[in-house]
Amino acid sequence: MKYKNPYYKKIKGSFKMVISCGLCKKELFTYQKIGKGGLLNMYLTRIIDGKVDLSKDIKIIKCPKCGNEIAVKINDSDLNKVSFKMLRSKFNTKRN
Fold first, then answer.
1. Which of 5, 12, 53, 71 is the most exposed place for a label (fewest CB within 10 A)?
2. Could you give the 3-state DSSP secondary structure of residue 27?
3. Where do the domains of the chain lie?
4. Closest of 12, 7, 50, 19 to residue 34, by C-alpha
5. How far apart are CA 57 and CA 78, in angstroms?
6. Which pLDDT tens digit goes with each residue over 31-61?
7. How many angstroms separate the CA atoms of 39 and 36, rounded?
8. pLDDT for 58-96, tens place per residue?
9. What is the C-alpha to C-alpha distance for residues 92 and 90, in angstroms, rounded to an integer?
């Protein structure tokens, strides 16, 4: 495990989701999803743990096994949150 969020806490109405690569099926992140619907943005504060090191300032999340691009970093200036815009059909999700 390369990344573990020290500020993780359970939020009411949320559930854990495993995010994996769409090509090689390697599990990359455990994410705390809130609400219904698909995963469009992955907020840094809701990532529980991951195989990709997010402590460095990276612009693009790539799969460490096959190099598939999963997400692109965006800064939401309205909410002052760092998030990653998920690229459709490049990842798989599974409710944990």
1. 12
2. strand
3. 3-89
4. 12
5. 20
6. 999 999 999 999 988 999 999 888 788 899 9
7. 9
8. 899 999 999 999 999 998 777 788 899 999 999 999 998
9. 7
